[in-house]
Write a structure and sequence with these properties.
By secondary structure, the protein is mainly alpha-helical. The protein has 19 helices and 4 strands. It folds into 2 domains: 249 residues, no CATH class; 137 residues, no CATH class. A 4-stranded mixed sheet has the order 1-2-4-3, sandwiched between helices. Strand 3 and strand 4 form a beta hairpin.
């Protein structure tokens, strides 16, 4: 069964929870005038393959439709004119699709490779038909928001990832139709390079070498993953379908940079920030009005958690974070350390202690050194003095943040 990827479902669930937005896009339909205008434009700028005259290509279309369970879909095939770009695309409305080839793609590919390209394109339609059309609605929502120049960068990143995972889904559709990896991979590389011959096994080894050499490599493109990522993903689906998605997720998303968070990772970081502050602000001596007002700037409903304790999950989450996230958390510490001058240097001592316990000692020391222009000796003197001040503050057992 060709299922959507986990990312598709998470983004669908997120926007499904935005009832007004969801209902607006769910009710919006392509108008007949727009469809007719698009068809006329194709007729003006493309060659339309006739099903009775070009039976071979339509036989491939029918084979793909049967494999992807798109029996009711009517597909018309076109070849664009006056373009050298080697590509294929599909436009879908209701039960009708226009499959458009551009450049010398039909001459470049053998039968299996062409079948793979057709399967990839029609897999877009299969994805849109799954879950009663929910993913097609989701795609339109995130694309529309991301295209608005006033939208936050997280929406652009979400749209980018949604498109990348869609291409991965469609590559898997081609693999399902053909039952073998070679033509799926060679068609990708031929289209990208215009080579006449491509060795699929060699290209997969090339992709593996990239991830062996640079373990943190991830997709950096906007609409389609890099071909070495797509080839490796196809290989993973074929050799280990049950475990493939976890590794593919790592290739697509990698470790999230603070400046490249999608809406899901923004939510995760917000939750981490709240837990982080609840731990750091647990000592009663620290909860002055000034400090509490600062916390309310981050979360209007912020409240202390008397039961807050260091848990393995938060330690693991911090450890696995990108360096930019670790720096963000350390600057968060620094903001609260300095916000109430009446506490003098006690919060700094607690900050040094806290940073060490949560796995941010190195990053926090670097930031303090940089921001205060300390030498190593000056840093150590400041740390010792502030820790002594912190240790002098009596802490009740209820304020502990460590499990016994």
């Amino acid at each position: 069964m060709h299922e959507p990827l986990i990312y598709h479902l998470k983004i669908r669930d997120y926007f499904f929870g935005q009832k007004k937005t969801w209902e607006f896009f769910a009710s919006a339909k392509t108008k007949k005038e727009q469809i007719n205008e698009y068809k006329i434009d194709l007729l003006k700028n493309c060659y339309k393959f006739d099903p009775s005259a070009e039976k071979e290509i339509y036989e491939k279309v029918e084979r793909v439709k049967a494999a992807l369970r798109l029996d009711l879909l009517q597909v018309t095939v076109y070849q664009s004119q006056n373009t050298e770009e080697v590509n294929a695309s599909v436009v879908y409305f209701e039960n009708e699709a226009c499959l458009v080839f551009s450049g010398p793609i039909l001459r470049m590919l053998n039968d299996d490779e062409l079948l793979s390209v057709i399967a990839h394109e029609l897999s877009h339609i299969q994805l849109y038909n799954l879950l009663s059309g929910d993913l097609e609605i989701t795609d339109r929502i995130i694309t529309a928001i991301a295209n608005n120049p006033q939208s936050e960068g997280s929406y652009f990143e979400t749209a980018r990832l949604f498109k990348l995972y869609t291409e991965i889904f469609c590559d898997r559709g081609a693999l399902i139709v053909l039952g073998k990896t070679e033509p799926v991979i060679t068609s990708l590389v031929k289209i990208a390079t215009s080579l006449d011959k491509v060795n699929a096994e060699s290209y997969v080894r090339q992709a593996e070498e990239i991830f062996t050499t640079e373990k943190n490599t991830k997709a950096a493109t906007v609409s389609h993953p890099e071909n070495f990522i797509r080839a490796r993903a196809i290989h993973l689906w074929h050799t280990g379908p049950k475990t493939a998605e976890k590794e593919i997720t790592r290739m697509i998303e990698g470790v999230a940079d603070l400046d490249q968070l999608d809406i899901l990772k923004q939510i995760e970081l917000s939750k981490l920030t709240r837990k982080f502050l609840q731990l750091f602000l647990k000592p009663k001596w620290f909860r002055t009005n000034v400090v509490k007002n600062q916390a309310l700037q981050f979360f209007p409903d912020f409240a202390g958690d008397e039961q807050a304790l260091f848990a393995p999950e938060i330690l693991d989450q911090v450890e696995a974070s990108h360096h930019s996230i670790k720096e963000y958390l350390c600057y968060l510490l620094l903001d609260f350390i300095l916000v109430d001058q009446s506490l003098e240097i006690v919060p700094f001592g607690w900050g040094f202690q806290f940073a060490e316990e949560i796995g941010l000692k190195k990053t926090f020391d670097e930031i303090v050194t940089r921001e205060f222009k300390y030498s190593l000796k000056k840093l150590q003197q400041h740390k010792q003095k502030s820790l002594e001040a912190y240790y002098a503050v009596k802490e009740s057992a209820s304020e502990q943040i460590y499990q016994d």
